[in-house]
Amino acid sequence: xxxxxxxxxxxxxxxxxxxxxxxxxxxxxxxxxxxxxxxxxxxxxxxxxxxxxxxxxxxxxxxxxxxxxxxxxxxxxxxxxxxxxxxxxxxxxxxxxxxxxxxxxxxxxxxxxxxxxxxxxxxxxxxxxxxxxxxxxxxxxxxxxxxxxxxxxxxxxxxxxxxxxxxxxxxxxxxxxxxxxxxxxxxxxxxxxxxxxxxxxxxxxxxxxxxxxxxxxxxxxxxxxxxxxxxxxxxxxxxxxxxxxxxxxxxxxxxxxxxxxxxxxxxxxxxxxxxxxxxxxxxxxxxxxxxxxxxxxxxxxxxxxxxxxxxxxxxxxxxxxxxxxxxxxxxxxxxxxxxxxxxxxxxxxxxxxxxxxxxxxxxxxxxxxxxxxxxxxxxxxxxxxxxxxxxxxxx
Length: 395
Ligand SMILES: Nc1ncnc2c1ncn2[C@@H]1O[C@H](COP(=O)(O)OP(=O)(O)OP(=O)(O)O)[C@@H](O)[C@H]1O
Ligand SMILES: [Mg+2]
What we know:
With 395 residues, the protein is an alpha/beta fold.
């Protein structure tokens, strides 16, 4: 039989280390952009060329497509590799094959006789998918498995990482020599600290999604007479289960004086807010979630010295930027919250979740209020704007 030598694209040193291992179960906990998917594609092709049957499983169809695309790019360079774009499979010789699957259709995952099972972004798949569906498919051929992922808290992937079953590696993103050097700095600047530790340093961070650092707390100041100097307002109009919340903070000081909350219905809120505005005479009011034709909007145009209406529902990116700015203030400048249990509690329970595609969503756990957090985000923003405020809405 004639032998042919095929050269696959070069792996970087760390990838090579994992690729050379002969362990049956391998696990890679690596930072974002480390080259996990590239390595998975490389491994899949290598096995297929050796006449083996490979499954490449990703948490969602679109993540599976990224791996498939890498395999197609490599596979096209190799004579004899057949690519079925629709079925998302590659094949070679008599038995070599790769099938790309997504874990969100578990019924398509029942197979047998797999030689190599690859789980890309394994930490974002349910443990049951691995234990009850995928793992058994390796039994008849004593197949191997390669689990690659960035960590996702201390979930089952972390237990697998520690277990004796796997040969495991843990590498931060910056060990990928192909990553442009500025990338890490961008990630460091744009990710909250705990997320950077998890996503880039590949640490198994037990932050359970908590977003804000433990806050500095100062005594609450709820009366205008006790508060010295100019102030600004951040108003978040409540949606069930939220109250309408007004965060009141001094201009030019790193703190919030108080957060006033009410569950009155909308028709009564205008009078309640008007009373607060008249009492405190804020130099700037930032308001979220009110259309121009609402009584509250008209009242603020009439009563507030300067008024900035924010979008009723800011984009995910805008929200993330504001959260990052406030976290920065809390960490670096010791920005302090008022000693109000409902406010502190909301900051402690406010969470961040990462979807498998890498998008962060922020908010209170389902059914829990987040009005105080929303109001403080607005007032923090107002404090940054105050002083250099455009008088756009001053009439
Ligand atoms: N061996 C390699 N040779 C050349 N470039 C590489 C190699 N490994 C990784 N890269 C490059 O590094 C970047 C990240 O690779 P890849 O998408 O495989 O990483 P990942 O860890 O799967 O990222 P993500 O966390 O976004 O899923 C890509 O631009 C890729 O082309
Ligand atoms: Mg990837």
